[in-house]
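We were asked to recover a plausible sequence for a given structure. The inputs and outputs are reproduced exactly as logged, with field labels preserved.

PROBLEM: sequence recovery
POSITIONS: 290
GIVEN STRUCTURE:
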């Protein structure tokens, strides 16, 4: 090797190591912090365990609505668990929907040690769909929150067995979400895009998965003809207007947008809780019960 190549190789090696180190917070496991149970709300339920499409054991709750063959699968956000989303379940049961909830891989009660903010979690969604079908579900909708919204959109691009998708606050491009999160942590604006690239490069190497490709904005055209409702606050920093416009252009008419003035990331339901539940259930009624 020529002598001048050695320093270049060393710099490149150190760059990759730095990327891998920076990616740890994005890919690490997240433990259960907020333990709740459907029993707290007086709901009948069954603890369940099922494999993801790549054979990671996932844990969750099957909460049935009597006599229903329509099921909504709840998909929680990054670093969280299914527990906080229990507050929505009674309204879905009253509307005649079974609810399947579970913790994503490397979150809470489920197995796995690495998370990916959507790319690998698609395998979890597909596993949940297979489980719901085994419970006599004939129509299936996905209700995704933040990372869960990303996973729902990515799953709709890959799996035909989904009748409708709602993404509440799911970032459309991961580089934007990571960059804006870095800014929230006081990283300078001109440095955050560079660090965002390094984080995702390190995570891609760590996970053996190209996270730059697994974005709803990249695969948006493949989601057609699945009906999709995007819910976003206009103060949500994790999805930019030009990204939203591109996503809408790729939708070919199957995508609806509900954008709420003044709401930040995952705060639309706080603006008007009754209207929120009315709109999401009405969307599923249109596409699962017609």
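RECOVERED SEQUENCE:
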């Amino acid at each position: 090797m020529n002598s001048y190549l050695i320093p270049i190789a060393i710099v490149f090696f150190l760059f990759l190591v730095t990327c891998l180190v920076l990616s740890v917070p994005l890919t690490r496991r997240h433990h259960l912090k907020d333990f709740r149970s459907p029993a707290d709300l007086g709901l009948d339920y069954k603890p369940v365990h099922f494999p993801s499409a790549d054979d990671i054991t996932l844990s969750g709750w099957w909460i049935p609505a009597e006599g229903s063959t329509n099921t909504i699968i709840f998909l929680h956000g990054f670093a969280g668990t299914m527990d906080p989303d229990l507050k929505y379940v009674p309204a879905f049961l009253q509307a005649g929907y079974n609810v399947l909830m579970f913790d994503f891989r490397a979150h809470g009660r489920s197995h796995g040690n690495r998370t990916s903010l959507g790319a690998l979690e698609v395998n979890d969604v597909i596993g949940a769909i297979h489980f719901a079908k085994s419970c006599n579900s004939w129509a299936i909708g996905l209700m995704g929150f933040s990372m869960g919204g990303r996973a729902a959109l990515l799953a709709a691009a890959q799996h035909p067995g989904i009748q409708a998708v709602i993404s509440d606050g799911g970032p459309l491009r991961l580089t934007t979400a990571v960059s804006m999160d870095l800014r929230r942590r006081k990283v300078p604006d001109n440095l955050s895009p560079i660090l965002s690239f390094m984080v995702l490069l390190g995570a891609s190497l760590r996970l053996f998965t190209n996270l730059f490709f697994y974005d709803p904005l990249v695969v948006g055209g493949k989601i057609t003809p699945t009906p999709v409702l995007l819910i976003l606050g206009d103060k949500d920093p994790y999805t930019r207007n030009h990204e939203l416009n591109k996503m809408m252009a790729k939708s070919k008419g199957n995508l609806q947008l509900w954008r709420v003035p003044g709401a930040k990331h995952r705060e639309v339901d706080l603006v008007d809780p009754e209207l929120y539940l009315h709109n999401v259930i009405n969307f599923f009624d249109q596409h699962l019960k017609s």
